[in-house]
Amino acid sequence: MPYLRPVPAEQSAPHPGDDTGRGAHARPVPGHDPRVQWVVSLAVVLVGLLTIRPMGLSGRGLAVAVLFVVNSAALLARRLPEHKVPPRIALAWLTLGVVAAAALIGLSSSGTGYLFAFFLAGHIGYRLETRPALVLAGFCSLLCGAVLYLRLGPGHELLPWVIGLATGAPVLIGIVNRTQRQAVRAAIDAAESAERAARAEARTAVLTERGRIARDVHDVLAHSLAGINMQLELTDALIDTGDLEKVREANARAHALVKESLKQAQWTVHALREDVLPLRETLTSMLTSSGHHDALTVTGTVREVPAQAVQNLLRIAQEALTNAARHAPGGAVEVELEFTPASTVLRVRNRPGTRRPAPGTGSGMGLIGMRERVALLGGTFTAGPVTEGPHQGDWQVEAVIPQ
Question: Per-residue pLDDT for 3 more than 50?
């Protein structure tokens, strides 16, 4: 966004309509350098000082000198920031400047006094709104034309009015310049608003990604370590009984859980790297390694599922299998993967356990994590006991992901 870098302060083009920006706190407009307007204004004052006559300390020369000072001050005041000059004050100051410029044209016998009216008319179009600017510029033209008419006298009826109208014409240049300035500032505002929106969106994406990583860490560490810890506690309890066969069995299950944890860590790495895993094959491998052979049923026309949906469905299946092993050990597990025209559905059911669950509870984040995953994909999630049908009494987790 080119307008968002630091840029020089506002500049007027080398014509009378340009002006400064809205002050030090305002955003500068690219392509405008205040030094140019200072040079132009000082050049007008200097040329007037060298050419306007008479100029002295008494009589008409004193009046011309005073008007010259007033005109110079009015011209140099163009550099006053807009936010520091209320519209009414600006209107009064520019009206006074127009009257002083017309009076200088009428009293001076030679020189470039008309330049003050010319540049002030341009600044009127830049500083004021269009309607008052046109009215004041018309007043400037009529006043300067009338003064020249009275000064030149009969025989020059057309020339004074042509020159008078010319003094007010730069108001159009000023209006165009003001419109351009407002358009540029509007573009800068829009660019900055877009950048702020992009930053907010990026922050939201970061927070979402942190939530995803937190869920993945929970799935791998909390579940795996909890399962290993339960087996090790069981092993300690069995050692006291002296039943070496059961000790070996518990120890073997602990080793199996360690291997499973390594696989889960690999899945997590794949997910964080956004590697695409085959959904059906990975589910089959997950069930087999958990001791549930031929537990996967696939219905519908198999199709490619987006990578994000695959990752979340695998995590949901992993969470559901871990919960089944923890709360219903020994119970049969069935997994259904259904492809419908409108969605992909994952169901994980487990029958009541055949062994007593090991003491200890989970982290309480499992169902919350699964629900969050489905919500991120715009789907629906349910978990609870089956109350009717052939699977009555089973515990079922169902995730429906829209196509």
Answer: no
